[in-house]
Amino acid sequence: MIAGLVKRFGSAVAVDRLDMRVEAGSIYALLGPNGAGKTTSLRMVVGLERPDSGSIHICGIDALARPLEAKARVAWLPDEPLLYEKLMPLEYLAFVAGLWSVPAAVAAPRASALLDALGLEAKRNARCENLSRGMRQKVALAGALIHDPDLLILDEPLTGLDAAAARVVKDMLRDRSRSGKTIILTTHILEVAERLADRIGIIRAGRLVAEGTPAELSGASGETLEDVFLALALG
Ligand SMILES: Nc1ncnc2c1ncn2[C@@H]1O[C@H](COP(=O)(O)OP(=O)(O)OP(=O)(O)O)[C@@H](O)[C@H]1O
After folding, report:
1. ABC transporter domain location, by residue (predicted)?
2. Is the beta carbon of 38 within 6 A of some atom in ligand 1?
3. CA 137 to CA 161: how far, in whole Å?
């Protein structure tokens, strides 16, 4: 899906010939220390940064040659999502659905179901500016799901969520993957990667230094994922 991806900022190489393949219907966790190039890589996948070289294919579509088609299949949830502060969650979701040309008759029940599933029923009529950080994160997640993307890419999706909310989001991601949708996420919480992901990639200085199932990465030598991660990512 990603081959030979390179991104430089001035003379600094943020992503260095990155290769990554994510199977449809799977959950892939990208791990790596601060500054490893995770966000930059994913921003290129969703079309927010132009790579210096390399290729990106999303659902078989060449994302650099046919960006609009590719983008229609993807949703991106940044680590600090922006909401329209004066809108209420349902209004925000209706607005985002409109951007994706989702018909109102489809979007409205989907928005209600998402807010209910995320435990935001009581906040339907609150303005986004008055929501807590975790609630805002949930509204943004609902926004990312409103056009039912084939590929959902999330940057640190569980940061700032309480335990119950984190559980709801993890369950939602698992359900999506079971229904055939693909998910890529970054996380610094190794346990999340270990429990949620089908495959884990560890990135260091812009390069993939290890990849496998959680069991493959940690199982062979009897080490924990944390041992493996610290040795590979920081060592
Ligand atoms: N717009 C930019 N201009 C210049 N340098 C940038 C820019 N965006 C990212 N970088 C640099 O690229 C490198 C990779 O950053 P990136 O945000 O992709 O890392 P990350 O793995 O997501 O880190 P973190 O875990 O801290 O979020 C860093 O050295 C960063 O300073």
Report:
1. 1-230
2. yes
3. 8
Q: Which two tokens stand for residue 95?
A: 């607005």
Complex-level ipTM beyond the 0.95 threshold: yes
**Does 40 contact ligand 1 (Cβ within 6 A)?**
yes
Asked whether 36 lines ligand 1 (CB < 6 A), one says yes
Residue 94: its H or E element? helix 89-99
The residue written with tokens 């369950």 in the block is 171
- Tell me, in angstroms, the distance from the centre of ligand 1 to residue 100's CA: 28
Listed by start position, the domains of the chain span 84-148
Q: Characterize the bridge pairing of strands 27-31 and 182-186.
A: parallel
Q: Taking 90 as the threshold, does the pLDDT of residue 156 lie above it?
A: yes
Residue 155, both tokens: 């940057």
Does 187 contact ligand 1 (Cβ within 6 A)? no
From 192, 188, 182, select the one nearest 214 (Cα to Cα). Answer: 192
**Which protein residue has the closest C-alpha to ligand 1 atom 27?**
34
What pTM was computed for the model?
Answer: 0.93
